[in-house]
Description:
Chain A is an all-alpha fold.
Amino acid sequence: MAKxxxxxxxxxxxxxxxxxxxxxxxxxxxxxxxxxxxxxxxxQGQKAASVYEGVFLYLRTxxxxxxxxxxxxxxxxxxxxxxxxxxxxxxxxxxxTSAGAAFGASVVFVxxxxxxxxxxxxxxxTIVPLFAFAGAILSTLLVYRLAGNxxxxxxxxxxxxxxxxxxxxxxxxxxxSYIARDPQAHSITFxxxxxxxxxxxxxxxxxxSIVGLSLIFxxxxxxxxxxxxLGESEAAYLGVSVSKLKRQxxxxxxxxVAITTAFVGVISFIGLIVPHILRSLIGSDxxxxxxxxAMAGAIxxxxxxxxxxxxxxxxxxxxxxxxxxxxxxxxxxxxxRSSFLLKNNQS
Amino acid sequence: xxxxxxxxxxIGQKQILTGISAxxxxxxxxxxxxxxxxxxxTLLKLLTGITKPSRGVxxxxxxxxxxxxxxxxxxxxxxxxxxxxxxxxxxxxEVIMMGRYPYFDFQPNKADEELVLKLAAQLxxxxxxxxxxxxxxxxxxxxxxxxxxLAQLDGLISGKRACLLLDEPxxxxxxxxxxxxxxxxxxxxxEDMIVVAVIHDLNLALQYADTLSAMKDGELVFCKNRIEINxxxxxxxxxxxxxxxxxxxxxx
Lengths: 347, 252
């Protein structure tokens, strides 16, 4: 009964292809032979034999992997949020997570203005992610706390309060970039639109382990999320402990968004558009939707980052500009064409 | 058997149910009737075990319903609620299959799929299986949901304890399918099964149900076997309208 089974092999294949392409293409092109040699030398414990191998091992690969992890995390988080709210237009950032992260990061950028150059570099690598993560968690907690008791979180309430807290965090970030001098203001802008420039193996390890674990965990939410589509009471009649499910989903979602946003900044539209496209292809069964969205999200972010690096090379465009610029019109086209949203309006 | 003892339910200051006691035996089809706002749907919600009464006890098959786990209950009782829209694309097959979710962890097995196909055939839904649920009419959606709750109770095989709670199951259905649904129910009835349904149409309730419970202003006015009901003055008491016998259409 499963629709479009060809995606079963197309998505992994496409992901592999995109990863190899994005690793090869850039200011310095890397051949497949260089990649092979680099891996060979690495596993044999030897040093990289050429600049190409070094670029491949320490710049390109971590960057592409970070893209993969971020794309998977954001897309799956979109699926979880939309399933939880039973609303296809919810974005993962709507409960305040990414706006909080942005505010946390902007505070560091402004504080660091007076620090010495070496401290600044150190700050951008460790303190920014830390503050961003803290900002993300704190603002999300604030939203949940304001939305009601922890036993049952009212979803409409949660969304409305999420919007308000987002607005406050945004104006906080706006104020920070207003009082910031130029290099810092520039950093804030860049961070608000997302960038993979500083990608390192440490970041890959941290985000990869948390996102990987969360995704494995998500398998057990697939069936309850399907039942939730029938409505909260129906899911309860079918054996789902709804308030427990809601709480766990919100925690997993916060982790996914907070940990990736902390390192790469705010990237919009992935969590909205990827699940939407997949639903139109394979329907709403979360047992397929979650893994497929993870792969598709990864593909989209790797490609977007490739564009961000290449379009104005050697300069880099913030990736958020690409995702919004391509994502928003694409989303509108999809909405116009998709039959299922129209049918919703009639019922 | 369902027994309720001195059930009260309030939302804020407003008391919806004011201390009701009743007993509905198994092997029978019980209809609850009453005017809008009399507390019928609320009473049915309390029987599901998910909504808890402010005071009083609900017993299902001789055990306090709060002692069942959510997962145990999901294999024992199914609920057909009043319609809720679904904002995501789901096929009819997927919706009916949701009734089987309490029985598997991740993927359904062959027997689950066969049961879904069998129920779809039984309710004349086979042609709809691959259609999107959202494209169906209200009545068609209602029949799909009915198939789903039957799937949840194993298609009502005899010998298995089952409690089926229906909140206005005949809404949106035309006269043919109203009778089809009720006949399916009657045909599936067995001695370990209990059906409680909120029904608006008095004629249908009187034609199919074994007992009639009438509610008014959050109280139970009476709870009688259908065959004991010969007089119809109570309709005026409960609903505030005068009725007359022997007119209208009766489906055979």
